[in-house]
Design a protein that fits this description.
Strand content: 25-35%
Largest sheet: 8 strands, mixed
CATH architecture of one domain: 3-Layer(aba) Sandwich
Distance between the termini: 39 Å
Number of strands: 38
Shape: globular
Helix content: 10-25%
CATH superfamily of one domain: Alpha/Beta hydrolase fold, catalytic domain
C-alpha cells in the first residue's frame, strides 16, 4: 500500500480519501472456519466471496504445501439449525463433508472425486465423529422430509461402506449436538436440549454404553439442566469425560470421575461460548494429555495450559486477542487467532518454544499503521447502575486531519446473536469507516457472551430494551467525552443487531440515521415464521408467545413506524430463511409512506449473512453514500448512486 509523505490535508470527517476501499474488504479475503487435523496435516474451511461465497476445504501438508480438496461446484456447508458448522470431518486421508446445494453427505478418499453417501433428499447432517470400531460416522441428523412438520433432530449413524446404511441412535429431544466416542469406542457422550431453551440457556450431557448392536444403552445424566449450560464434551486420552459448565456463573471446565463432576479450574472466566454452530472447540488435549484451553476475560481471549493431574495452570503468551477453534497437532496446537493489527488467521503454536506460525491469513491486504485505528476497550455506564462494554475505534488516516474543533460522526455497531460477542480483531470493514473519518463503537451490550452468565442474562425478557439502551449509552458516553458529533450519530447491525438498530431508531430519538442488514422488524412474524432452532428463542428474550403477544407488538419496530424519526437504509438477501425478506420490504414501504429518507437494496442468491463479493462491496459503498447525503459530506470514493426515497 502506498503512503503519503506530505503534511496531512485538512478535510471534513467522512470525506477523507482512504486506500482501504470496499474492494480491499473482500479482495483476496476469505472467511476462515472449522479447523481439523489428521497426522501432520492441518485442514481448514475457506469461505470465498470472490467465488460466490463457496466454502472449500483446504489442506496444508507438513512441508507447507497447501491445496484445495473439495472441487467446484461443491460447497462445504450444512444447514442443520440453519447456521450450520461441523460441516466436514477428516479421517486419515479421507474427507467426509456436507454439500450445501443438496445437503447430502459425501465421502472423498485422497485423490478421488467425492461420492455421495446419504440417500434420502430432505435430510441434513452435521457434527460427525468417526466410530472406527463399527466403521461408521455418529452425527447429528435433521429430517425435513415431511412438508408442514417441524424438522426432526436425532443422533444417527451412517456406515462408511456402501450402501451407507443409516441408523437412529437417539431420538426424542428437540435438539442434539456433540456426539463424542470414548477412545476405545465403548461409550458415547452427547448433548441434548428442548424447546424453549437454547443450548446456552440450559442443556443436558448424557453418557451411555454402546451395545453389541451399536446402539446406546440406558443413558446416564452427567450434568446440565434447564438452567445449566454444558459446552464441548470431550474425552481425554485416558478415557475421562471433560466438559464446560456454567453452573458457577462462568463456563468452567469439569471432568466426570467416579460418578461425579469435579471442577478442574474454578475461575471468573469463560471456557465456553454460545453454541450457535456445531463443531466449536475451545480446548484440546496435547501430546502429554494436558489441556490447552482458550478462555475469555475482560472481553479478550487468552490461551492457557492446564495439567489435570497436578492442577498446575499457566498462561501461554500469544499476540492474539481473539482465539478459537483449537485443534491439537504434534508438539502444539492450531487455532484461529486475530489481533488489532492482524486479521483472523490459522495459527500454529509450538508448546515448547511458544513460537507462533501463521499458516493462512483471512486477508492478504496489509494496512499501513498510518491508516490503522487501534481498538480501545471501554466500559461505560448502563441502566440500573451497571456498566457495559465496547471497543472504541477513533478516526485514523495519516493523510488527513479534521478542521479545528470538529467532532467525527459516530457509527455504533451491534453484533448479531444477540448472545454473541465482538472481539478486537483487525476488521477491514471497521477500518473502511475509521480511515474515512468515522469513529466506531463496536458494542458488547448486556446479553453478550464473554462476561459470565449474569451479564449474558441481562437480555432475558429484555431484548429490544437493554441492547438498545446500551447502544445509546455508549454513544452518549463518547459524545460527553468529546469523541463524537451528537448531530451525526448512526447505528448499524445485521440480523439481531439489525433489530437493535431498528428499535433504537423507532423508539428513541438519539441516532440521526441507521442501517439494517437483514434485521428483524416484526418480532411476532419472527416467532411464527423462523426456523426450528430459533423458533422458541424469543420466549426467553421477549416472553412466551402467543401469551405475551401484546409485548411482541410493543417491541416490534414495524408496528410503530409512526414513531420513527430518522432516515434508514436496509439491505436484504432474497433467500434468507432466518429473517424473511418481506420484513425489510414492509419496513421500507412503511418508512417511505411516512415521508422519511429511506433506501432498500435486495440481493438474489444471498441468504442470512452476505457471502458474495459484489454484494458486500455494493452494501458498504451504498451505506457510505447514504450517510454522506444525510450528514453533509461528499465521499472521496466514486460510488454508484443509491435511490433514496424522500430525500429533500
Amino acid at each position: 500500500m502506498t503512503t503519503s509523505a506530505d503534511a496531512p490535508q485538512t478535510a471534513g470527517y467522512g470525506a477523507w480519501k482512504s486506500p482501504i476501499g470496499s474492494g480491499m474488504v473482500v479482495a483476496d479475503a476469505v472467511r476462515l472456519g472449522q479447523l481439523a487435523v489428521s497426522g501432520d496435516a492441518v485442514y481448514w474451511l475457506e469461505g470465498r466471496p470472490q467465488d460466490g461465497g463457496r466454502n472449500v476445504v483446504v489442506r496444508r501438508s507438513a512441508d507447507g504445501a497447501t491445496a484445495d480438496l473439495t472441487p467446484a461446484p461443491f460447497n462445504v456447508r450444512t444447514r442443520v439449525h440453519e447456521y450450520g458448522g461441523g460441516a466436514y470431518l477428516v479421517d486419515g486421508d479421507t474427507l467426509y463433508f456436507c454439500n450445501f446445494a443438496d445437503q447430502h453427505l459425501y465421502r472423498q478418499p485422497a485423490g478421488r472425486a467425492p461420492e455421495r453417501m446419504s440417500v434420502r433428499d430432505g435430510m441434513r447432517y452435521a457434527d460427525a465423529a468417526v466410530d472406527r470400531v463399527r466403521r461408521r460416522l455418529a452425527l447429528v441428523r435433521e429430517d425435513h422430509t415431511a412438508p408442514g412438520r417441524e424438522a426432526v433432530n436425532t443422533l444417527a449413524a451412517i456406515g462408511l461402506d456402501a450402501p451407507y446404511a443409516e441408523t437412529v441412535l437417539c431420538a426424542g429431544a428437540d435438539f442434539y449436538s456433540s456426539p463424542r466416542l470414548s477412545p476405545d469406542g465403548s461409550r458415547l457422550a452427547w448433548l441434548s436440549w428442548n424447546h424453549p431453551n437454547m443450548p446456552w440457556d440450559g442443556c443436558d450431557l448424557w453418557l451411555a454404553e454402546l451395545g453389541a448392536d451399536g446402539r446406546p444403552g440406558e443413558p446416564r445424566h452427567v450434568a446440565g439442566g434447564p438452567q445449566e449450560s454444558i459446552f464441548q464434551p470431550e474425552w481425554s486420552p485416558a478415557g475421562e469425560l471433560v466438559f464446560a459448565s456454567d453452573r458457577s456463573g462462568w463456563w468452567n471446565l469439569y471432568r466426570w470421575r467416579g460418578g461425579r463432576s469435579e471442577p478442574l479450574l474454578p475461575m471468573s472466566a469463560e471456557f465456553g461460548e454460545p453454541q450457535w454452530v456445531f463443531g466449536m472447540s475451545d480446548y484440546v488435549f496435547d501430546d502429554a494429555g494436558r489441556i490447552v484451553a482458550r478462555y475469555q476475560a475482560g472481553g479478550e481471549s487468552h490461551l492457557a495450559l492446564l495439567d489435570t493431574d497436578s492442577g498446575s495452570f499457566r498462561e501461554l503468551p500469544t499476540p492474539y486477542r481473539s482465539i478459537g477453534g483449537l485443534r491439537a497437532v504434534p508438539g502444539g496446537v492450531v487455532f484461529l487467532g486475530g489481533a488489532p493489527a492482524e486479521p483472523n488467521s490459522v495459527v500454529r503454536l509450538d508448546l515448547a518454544s511458544l513460537q507462533c506460525q501463521v499458516l493462512r491469513r483471512a486477508s492478504t491486504a496489509r494496512i499501513d499503521a498510518g491508516y490503522l485505528s487501534v481498538p480501545q476497550p471501554i466500559e461505560f455506564p448502563a441502566a440500573g447502575g451497571l456498566s457495559a462494554h465496547a471497543f472504541y475505534y477513533p478516526p485514523q488516516n495519516r493523510d488527513f486531519r479534521a478542521p479545528a474543533g470538529a467532532r467525527p460522526p459516530l457509527l455504533v455497531l451491534n453484533h448479531g446473536g444477540p448472545t454473541a460477542a465482538t472481539e478486537a480483531t483487525l476488521n477491514p470493514l471497521i477500518q473502511f469507516w475509521t480511515s474515512r473519518g468515522f469513529a466506531v463503537a463496536d458494542v458488547n451490550y448486556g446479553g453478550s457472551s464473554g462476561y459470565g452468565r449474569a451479564y449474558r442474562g441481562r437480555l432475558i425478557g429484555q431484548w429490544g430494551v437493554v441492547d438498545v439502551e446500551d447502544a445509546i449509552n455508549v454513544a452518549r458516553h463518547l459524545v460527553q467525552r468529546g469523541l463524537a458529533d451528537e448531530q451525526r450519530l448512526a447505528i448499524r447491525g445485521g440480523s439481531a443487531g439489525g433489530f437493535t438498530a431498528l428499535a433504537a431508531l423507532t423508539f428513541h430519538r438519539y441516532f440521526k440515521a441507521g442501517a439494517s442488514y437483514y434485521g428483524v422488524g416484526d418480532l411476532e412474524a419472527l416467532a411464527r415464521d423462523t426456523h426450528k432452532f430459533e423458533s422458541r428463542y424469543l420466549d426467553s428474550l421477549v416472553g412466551a408467545y402467543p401469551a405475551q403477544k401484546a409485548l411482541y407488538e410493543a417491541r416490534s419496530p414495524l408496528r410503530h413506524v409512526e414513531r420513527l424519526r430518522s432516515p434508514l437504509i436496509l439491505f436484504q438477501g432474497l433467500e434468507d430463511q432466518v429473517v424473511p425478506p418481506n420484513q425489510s420490504q414492509t419496513m421500507f414501504d412503511a418508512v417511505k409512506a411516512k415521508g422519511l429518507p429511506v433506501a432498500l437494496l435486495t440481493f438474489e442468491h444471498e441468504q442470512h449473512g452476505f457471502r458474495r463479493a459484489q454484494t458486500i462491496r455494493r452494501c458498504l459503498e451504498a451505506e457510505l453514500y447514504f450517510y454522506g447525503r444525510l450528514f453533509g459530506f461528499t465521499p472521496a470514493d466514486a460510488i454508484e448512486p443509491v435511490a433514496i426515497e424522500n430525500l429533500p
